[in-house]
Amino acid sequence: MPDTDVHQPPSRANRATLFFLALVFFFIGTIFLFIGGGPAVEDWQYRRQAVQAQAVATGKTLRQATANTDTLYEISYRFALADGKPYEQTQRTSVHLWEQVERGSPLVAEYLPGQHESARVVQGRPDRRRTIIFGLSIGAVLILIGLFLFKSGVRPSSVAQGSTPTSTVTAVARAPEPSSFWSVALRSVGMWFGGIFLLVAVPMVVATAFLFYNDWLFARSANATQGMVLTKEIRRSGRQNRTREYRLTYRFTVDGKTLEGRDELSQQGWERLTERAPAEVRYLPQRPSFSRLAGPRPWIQKAVFALVGSVFSVVGATFFIGAVRRARLEWRLRRHGVNAHGTVTELRERDLKINGERLWRLHFEFRDFQGRVHRNTIDMSAEEAQRWKVGDSGRVLYDSSQPIEAVWLGRDA
How far apart are CA 149 and CA 23, in angstroms? Predict the structure, then answer.
């Protein structure tokens, strides 16, 4: 019997999982492309088409944060349009430009032709290069991963449609040698499933550990000084915007050097502070740029992140390590293992689902070259399990020195 190709096409269940993961990567990647692409297109329009005009400041306003609004620093200015008509605009600006501008200050405005409402102050033009580079690069990487998963899912089958494999193996063929360990590992849905979980969980665990370490470090060695609150904002997320993060920016001076920081406090601490009012700032003596506001801090979110990250890490590591170990075993046995006939002894449905599909466990036994019987198991999808019944025969590869280490290859393609 001729050797079969180790690059076997994925089963229907595996293809469904690969397609699902590809869609997830496409969706998230598209979001990041919009995050980076929107500002990039807008900046390109202003560079190519914007009309500039001399403007003069007519006033400025500070709108303090409330339970429903963030801090707003606004400036008003007047300039003449291309047709000579005066036009006045009020826009949100940075705290730094707001502090520099007084009534009568000269400014430079720019706007898109025919869109007077698009006017903005050139001096307050936002620098969004980091946002653009971050959004486009992360989006491109995620979409490339999605394309790879999609391509793996549509790999054509080498088995003719409608063909039905025989229920027994009449001869034992030499197992094909894979070109590399990864050629076996990349076919494992468990590795992809566990890898996705670890990709999400590990950054969560690392970030949470860093936050707890910072709490300990500031409690142990931070100095205190007087600073000033610049802005207050509420970040809403979760279902019906029930989750809220109370953030503030502030300014302080250490050894004649002015520094700024950003921090998050509990709702009570946030409400107690006011824009342009003094606030106590704590900083590390060795690195004054590492600072935070004094006051009560949120801890529930950190605890939830730590718990979720730990659970995801354990689940992901279990699937990933198990899949990698099996792939390494199969790779080694395909190169140096001994062929044998295996017999299905039991098929049982498991209380475990991947991508909404319940897994099955196939029990098999085989005899080594000394005639001793060994038993082992393999997990498979419901689609694959339907092809087998108790008493069917399939190919097995085992280690001659440790026959208990064996892999079920099933029928030849």
Answer: 9
Q: Is pLDDT above 50 for 158?
A: no
CATH of domain 337-413: 2.40.50
- Side chain identity at 248, as an amino acid letter? L
3: exposed, middle or buried (Cβ count in 10 Å: 0-12, 13-18, 19+): exposed
Decide: residue 30, CB within 10 A, 0-12 exposed, 13-18 middle, 19+ buried. middle
Residue 21 — very low, low, confident or very high, per pLDDT cuts 50/70/90?
A: confident
**CA distance from start to end of the chain:** 11
Matching CATH topology for 206-298 and 337-413? yes
Helix (H) or strand (E) holding 196: helix 189-221
DSSP-assigned letter for residue 137: H
Residues in the chain: 413
Instruction: Quick: pLDDT tens for 226-276.
Output: 999 999 999 887 676 678 889 999 999 999 999 999 999 999 999 999 999
Q: Closest Cα partner for 403 from 363, 373, 377?
A: 373
DSSP 2: P
pTM of the predicted structure, to 2 decimals: 0.62
With 80 as the cut, is the pLDDT of residue 85 above it?
yes
Given strand 72-80, what is the order of strands in its sheet? 86-92, 72-80, 51-63, 106-112, 115-121
How far is C-alpha 71 from the geometric centre of its chain's CA atoms? 30
58: Cα separation from own chain's centroid: 46
At position 37, the amino acid (one-letter code) is G
Candidates 2.40.50, 2.30.30, 1.10.10, 1.20.1070; CATH matching 206-298:
2.40.50
CA 230, CA 248: separation in Å to the nearest integer? 7
- Is residue 116 within 8 A of residue 51, CB to CB? The reply is no
Residues in CB range of 344: below 8 A, 6 or more apart: 362, 363, 364, 388, 389, 390, 391, 392, 393, 394
